[in-house]
Amino acid sequence: MLNKNLIKQCHIFAELSAGEIDRVAGIAEEKEYQAGAVLFVEKDPADELLIIQEGKVALQMACVTPPGRAVTIDLASSGEAIGWTVLIEPHVYDLTAVCLQKTRVLAINGIQLRALLREDGLSGKLMGGLVQAVISRLNDTRRLLISERLWRQRIE
Amino acid sequence: MMTNNSVRALLASDRPAIRRYFQKLVEDQLEGVIVGESENAHTAVSLARQLRPDLVIVDCCLPYYARLVDITLSANAGLDAAQAIRDEIPDVRVILVDTAKAGTDEPVSAEDYRLSPAIFTGPEEKPGLSFASLQRRPSPLHKMGFSDICLAIGGGGLVLGLALTTTMVLAFIGLPLVLIGVLGIFAGCLGKVFSASSVELKPEIPGAEGNIFAYEGRLKEPRDAK
Q1: Are B133 and A35 inside 8 Å of each other by CB?
Q2: Angle B57-B58-B64 from CA coordinates, rounded to 5°
Q3: Choice between A107 and B205, residue whose per-residue pLDDT is larger
Q4: What is the arithmetic mean of pLDDT over B49-66?
Q5: Most buried among B31, B178, B196, B215, by the most CB within 10 A?
Q6: Beta-sheet pairing, B113-116 with A70-77
Q7: How far does Cα B40 stand from its chain's mean position?
Q8: Is A149 exposed, middle or buried (0-12, 13-18, 19+ CB in 10 A)?
């Protein structure tokens, strides 16, 4: 049975009602991946929003130089959603997701989710949660950037 | 003893206890030698280029330069380092170990921790990137089932009851304890008999024999959902 609480506890869906959560659960399925598996690749079409039930996922961004190299810019673990660009044009993944552990996810079909948002007018509720999630990730990255810059200043 | 065929291993972790654990694994299970150690992703890749090891074991929680207090993201460069080494060094075997469940300062011993899956399975191991996780072994108490608990309580009750009974003065306590002890041992034995007849062993992953297997992580492949 799908874990609807997981959907409710996810930031993006926090403002949905119980009935709306049920509708989202209706277009979701559970999937399991082994450590090392790739959930999605940067620049691929975004067709699923994933909520992590168990495990840890590294989110990587490709480097411009050197080419072919990727850098881990964030980690996602239980309760967090990845693949947000399912909701944002042009619906293309902007990161690559690699499982660092055996990982179980709730995969929400992107096309059906966008249709649901249009039909039920849920876009406003979802966007609020999405903005919160983006702000949280942005602040984590900012803290890391500031700390590393200050650390480099101290050692030079 | 180092021989010409010894596996040459490079260890990468900013925690000495983790590096000692990896070292013991390499020396005991592979009769290998440690040719280098690094505390961050930057030097791990540099050393790998210089030393060209056969095997590199990388802590998933490796920092790029240094672990920053309260900044979790500062210590997650292990995957990046492992991928870079795998891409740049031909025929190297890289193992990325998730050590999140191991403490920062406490010693890591083979008695207390195990790698899952077992990463050294034999001479047929292939180069490439593999994933494993360091997990605390369950304590003997956690492994105890209902039958074991009954046997333990029964045995303890029986011994204590007999001891109290022999004092004569406390026999009124001892005799019930002896009875409880006998019942506990009986229940525990029954439980063992029934559970042994119904146990079904399943490998952790279909196709694997217990935990003895290795698999490789791949980049830019179709999803491997089950």
Answers
A1: yes
A2: 150
A3: A107
A4: 92
A5: B178
A6: unpaired
A7: 22
A8: exposed
* Residues A113-145 pLDDT 10s: 999 888 877 777 788 888 888 888 888 888 888
As to burial, measured by CB atoms within 10 angstroms (0-12 exposed, 13-18 middle, 19+ buried), residue B193 is exposed
SS3 B164: helix
- The interface pTM score, or ipTM, of the predicted complex is 0.86
Mean pLDDT, residues B137-145 taken together: 62
How far is residue B192 from each of residues A156, B147, B187, B195, B202, measured CA to CA in Å? Answer: 66, 6, 9, 5, 19
Alpha helices in B53-202 (DSSP H): 78-88, 140-143, 146-166, 171-198
**Listed residue (A105, A133, A90, A88) closest to A40, CA to CA:** A105
Q: Which residue did the predictor score with more confidence, B102 or A126?
A: A126
Given B65, B80, B218, which is nearest A36 (Cβ)? B218
pTM of structure: 0.72
Q: For residue B221, name the pLDDT band (cuts at 50, 70, 90).
A: very low
Q: How many CB atoms lie within 10 A of CB B176?
A: 14
The region that residue A43 occupies, defined by phi over 0 for left and psi between -120 and 50 for alpha, beta otherwise, is left
CB of B41 within 8 A of CB of B81? yes
For every residue of A127-143, DSSP letters joined together read HHHHHHHHHHHHHHHHH
Provide the terminal-to-terminal Cα distance of chain A, rounded to the nearest Å.
Answer: 56
Q: Could you say which DSSP state residue A26 is in?
A: T
Chain B residues with a Cβ under 8 Å from any Cβ in chain A: 60, 64-66, 68, 71-74, 76-77, 79-80, 83-84, 87, 96, 98, 100, 129-133, 205, 215-221, 223-226
Determine which of A18-32, B100-114, B188-202 has the lowest per-residue pLDDT on average.
Answer: B188-202
